[in-house]
Amino acid sequence: MLKLMIADDEKIIRETIARIIDWETLGLRVIGVCKDGLEALDLIMDESPDICLVDIRMPGLSGLDLIERASASDPDMNFIILSGYGEFSYAQEAMRFGVRHYLLKPCDPDQIVDATRKTIEEHQKRVRLRELEDSETLRQHLFRTVHEYAAILSLHPDHKDAVLEKLLALMDTYTDLDFQQAVAIHFFTWMYDESPYAPWGPLSQLLASFRKTGSADELRSLVLSCLNALPESPPTSGRLPKEFILQCIDYTRAHYDDPCLTLKWIAENHLFMNVDYVSKQFVKQTGERYSHFLNRIRIDQAKKLLSLGNLTFYEIAQKVGYGNNPQYFSQVFKKITGQTPTAFVQSL
Predict the structure, then answer these.
(1) Strand order in the sheet with 28-34
(2) pLDDT at 237 (0 to 100)
(3) Is 148 helix (H, G, I), strand (E, B) or coil?
(4) Mean predicted lDDT score pLDDT of the chain
(5) Could you tell me if 243 and 278 are in contact, meaning their C-beta atoms sit under 8 angstroms apart?
(6) What domains can you pick out in the chain, each with its CATH number?
(7) How far apart are CA 177 and CA 309, in angstroms?
(8) Cα end-to-end distance, the chain, whole Å
(9) Residues 6 or more apart in contact with residue 306 via CB below 8 angstroms
(10) What predicted TM-score, i.e. pTM, was given to this entire model?
(11) With the CA atoms of 8, 12, 18 and 19 taken in that order, what torsion angle do they form, in degrees rounded to the nearest 10?
């Protein structure tokens, strides 16, 4: 199911749109209803929605600025614009970022549904085309799926039979034994990371046993044996912090100055994991959303640069990842610290 975000500074409009349309029948799940551009950008950074229904004029960060920043980090994100009378010039400007649908307020539910259906079709066509053209994308998709199975099993040991069925079905996607071995190896490697209570001995020995199998039947038998050895429920204590969260934190600290940095990019290109799972685990293990963590890191660095007194706000905004938008930098700075950059400098 695709993810939908709605952003409009008029409460009655955003809540009515979210409520009166049966989004699930369209294959969409509403993941957030935002009151301004800043809130919407935070949600985009955390959840990476597939479709964003946004008002072109919002306080804090306009819909146009929001689309520009989000498109820079995720060109595949889809936007449907809501614009008032006389704001069509803004909608035309948004077309530069690939926006193909705009609705003039007031609009009725049928217009919204029609634009959404067309956007879904365009999105699905792009996805299918990319999968056909890029075998590497397909490979990564397969192994992200494998990781999802490992994550499900580590959290819900009672789903063992269902996971086994899905894993074997995935292995049967290709008859090539090397491919089937790769699926098994990736799955159990992730299981070691997800489940420190895994009962199979050293990981290197287990992986070597998969590589030594001489037939698909032998491999399936070994996979079945390993999964049957798992306990029905995980221990109640002793779980270790997940390594991929530490990797995510380390990568963010090293690349916070990249204005296009998002959790989705890290998950898919650095961790090779599902962004929804990483997002939920990040909150669970750190106690904060990724967007807040990233902004906190950036603002901490900005405070250090401000204390030096030799850079303009524009230069600092660029150096800490807010691109060429010092106004947005100032808004986030005040949101995190409770004071503007100017007030902070004066307090030194």
Answers:
(1) 28-34, 2-7, 51-55, 78-83, 101-104
(2) 42
(3) helix
(4) 84
(5) no
(6) 2-133 (3.40.50.2300), 135-228 (no CATH), 241-348 (1.10.10.60)
(7) 62
(8) 50
(9) 316, 341, 344, 345, 348
(10) 0.55
(11) 180
